[in-house]
Design a protein that fits this description.
The chain is α/β, with parallel strands linked by helices. The protein has 8 helices and 6 strands, in the order ααβαβαβαβααβαβ.
Length: about 180
């Protein structure tokens, strides 16, 4: 109900078929690949099941990966509009511009949803995964947006980073679901 109220507050009375299918697949424990046109509401296909999971289990965590900083900011804004008031759910960005004192604070008290990019995952989070234990122990979702950008050498690199992420979180006892989105795959 808190999410339904947040959707109504955002002027959303009904979901599109692709959004419903993505949410239902995520609820069923499946990994999801959501491919549909630009500005068709793909974000709700992962935001809703992630928020539902956190509302049901406040220890649950999610990692959102975006290839560019502008998307990190846009997604945080749209996500915060859906977070039910008083729920205590936090979404934070950690990227190359995040000062070291802020990174230390995020490690000490990890947000429910950490928004970052593959390079920060590779260079900061995975090498120091022991320092992120509270986050990785409870990682339920990994979202990879703009999947079509991960091609060529960069795509190969990101594929290896995601394999490494799976090994690290498995060592922490977590088996997150993956949700990937693209408009042009």
């Amino acid at each position: 109900e808190p999410l339904a109220a947040a959707l109504r507050g955002a002027g959303i009375d009904r979901l599109y078929t692709h959004q419903v299918e993505a949410v239902e697949a995520a609820r069923a424990g499946a990994n999801v690949l959501l491919v549909t046109g630009t500005a068709s509401g793909k974000s709700l296909g992962y935001q809703l099941p992630v928020l539902e999971a956190i509302l049901a289990d406040p220890s649950a965590r999610a990692l959102f990966l975006f290839p560019i900083k502008a998307l990190e900011q846009d997604q945080r804004t749209s996500l915060e509009a859906l977070i039910p008031f008083g729920s205590g759910i936090r979404a934070e960005i950690m990227d190359g511009d995040t000062p070291s004192h802020r990174r230390a604070k995020l490690r000490a008290d990890p947000p429910h949803i950490l928004i970052t990019n593959p390079d920060i995952l590779h260079l900061s989070l995975l090498p120091g995964h022991e320092q992120w234990q509270a986050f990785f122990d409870h990682l339920r979702y990994v979202v990879v947006d703009e999947l079509h950008t991960y091609k060529g050498i960069f795509g190969s690199h990101v594929a290896h980073v995601l394999r490494r992420l799976r090994r690290v979180v498995a060592a922490h006892g977590a088996r997150p679901q993956f949700v990937a989105c693209s408009a042009t795959i």
